[in-house]
Amino acid sequence: MHAAEFNKTALAGLGSILFVILLIAFSNLVFAPNRPAVPGYALPTGETAAAPAAAAAPAPEEPLPVLLAKADAKKGAQDAKVCTTCHNFDKGGAAKVGPDLWGVVGRPIASVAGFAYSDSLKAMGGDWTYEKLDHWIANPKGMASGTKMAFPGEKEPQKRADILAYLQTLSDSPVPFPTQASAK
Ligand code: HEC
């Protein structure tokens, strides 16, 4: 076959393919297929009317015990990666910029021997409960204004709960989560 002839044949072939593509595109325009968001048939259920209303309402803030009950320690381990720039999570781990966090749940606040805590944190007193840790991770400066922990805070409640679930695993005798009854 001559090169010129081959080109003509190829062009004709391409042309017809293009034509079919255009035809499909055009028929889609004209007949505007009404594809449902969820594939399948919409079966009448009593719930369909109620669902959008529920979704539109702002999600009420869930109490910590509820968030902890559905927390995922594996996700928490991922989310806690940002902490590892300053904290060790290992048993007997050395202090970095911040103290080692093994067994921090239930431990007296500012109690790692040899770590130079800020006066602000030392003045707080008491033990680290899940509630206190939740507030701390949300906004360290809000709890101890003079803290040395330069962390802006994790604003998402479920992420904090996941991190707390991960902190729970860093212990020889993990502290149980508070229940809703005990939290009140
Ligand atoms: C930029 C460094 C930095 C990051 C990031 C950081 N921290 Fe800290 N953290 C510190 C420092 C410094 C202290 C000591 C604070 C003080 O003395 O005021 C501290 C203290 C703490 C304490 C108190 C420990 C005790 O012994 O009382 C907890 C709990 C804690 N951090 C948890 C976390 C968690 C969880 C994250 C991640 C979500 C995190 N921190 C991220 C630097 C950091």
Descriptive overview:
This protein is mainly alpha-helical and 184 residues long. The protein folds into 2 domains: 1-32; 64-183, Cytochrome c-like domain (Cytochrome Bc1 Complex, Chain D, domain 2). The protein has 9 helices and no strands. The protein has helices at residues 3-31, 50-56, 64-69, 73-79, 119-122, 130-138, 140-143, 157-169, 180-183. The radius of gyration is 29 Å and the shape is elongated. The chain starts with a helix and ends with a helix. The mean pLDDT is 87. Heme C is lined by residues 80, 82-83, 85-87, 97-99, 101, 104, 109-112, 117-118, 120-121, 128, 133, 136-137, 144, 147-151, 154, 163.
Summarize the structure.
The protein is an all-alpha fold and about 180 residues long.
The CATH topology of the largest domain corresponds to Cytochrome Bc1 Complex, Chain D, domain 2
- List the ions, cofactors and other small molecules found in this model: heme C
Poorly predicted runs are none
Could you tell me how far the N terminus lies from the C terminus, measured between alpha carbons in angstroms? Answer: 88 Å
In helices, the fraction of residues equals: 40-55%
Structural class: mainly alpha
Please identify, by name, the CATH architecture of the largest domain.
Orthogonal Bundle
Helix count?
A: 9
Largest sheet: none
How many individual β-strands? Answer: 0
CATH domain class name of the largest domain:
Mainly Alpha
Q: What is the CATH homology-level superfamily of the largest domain?
A: Cytochrome c-like domain
